[in-house]
Amino acid sequence: EPLSALDAKLRESLRREIRRIQQEVKLATLHVTHDQDEAMAISDRMAVMHAGRIEQIGTPSEIYSHPESAFVASFIGHANVIAGTITSVSEERLEMDASGTMLRAAASGRDFHPGEDVLLFCKEEKLRLADDGQKTVSARVIIAEYHGETVIVHLESRIGPLRLRMPAGMASNMSAGMQVSVCLPPEECDVFPQKTLS
User: For residues 195 and 140, what is the distance between their CA atoms, to the nearest angstrom?
Assistant: First the structure.
């Protein structure tokens, strides 16, 4: 992990330089790191390892957007993780009960059955403030963290703690104690058997 001891700005600058050299020289390199941002920034293809075995190989975009295991879904990016039980399955979607709240996800081709305990993953930037008519989850703002261009809103809800990342301009009125409704878009959610995350 050659960049781990550097301060943030120098690390970012060296990441760009490494990437530039790789592309210019067409150099194959193997870079080992625990820093997800670093791995995604400098790689054409990456492998995610867990407990001594490869969980998934693909482009950074494939791994981020289409995780193939519960570990990859929880490790890459910041995902909201919600435990529940499958209530119905169809070719297009599945439904689950999460602490009395019904949630939906697009069918993934995995073999689920009613009564199965699962984990639903929804990245913090995919969670949204709800529009009228959407299936929603009521939540209370715990804290809103300002990160320059974005704000990360920490929420408390019936289905567990949630994180919502949104543009700073849209979050100016977020304050502790405020009640909001959020939705987890089914097409943005990944579902895996609960037993597979250890």
Answer: 30
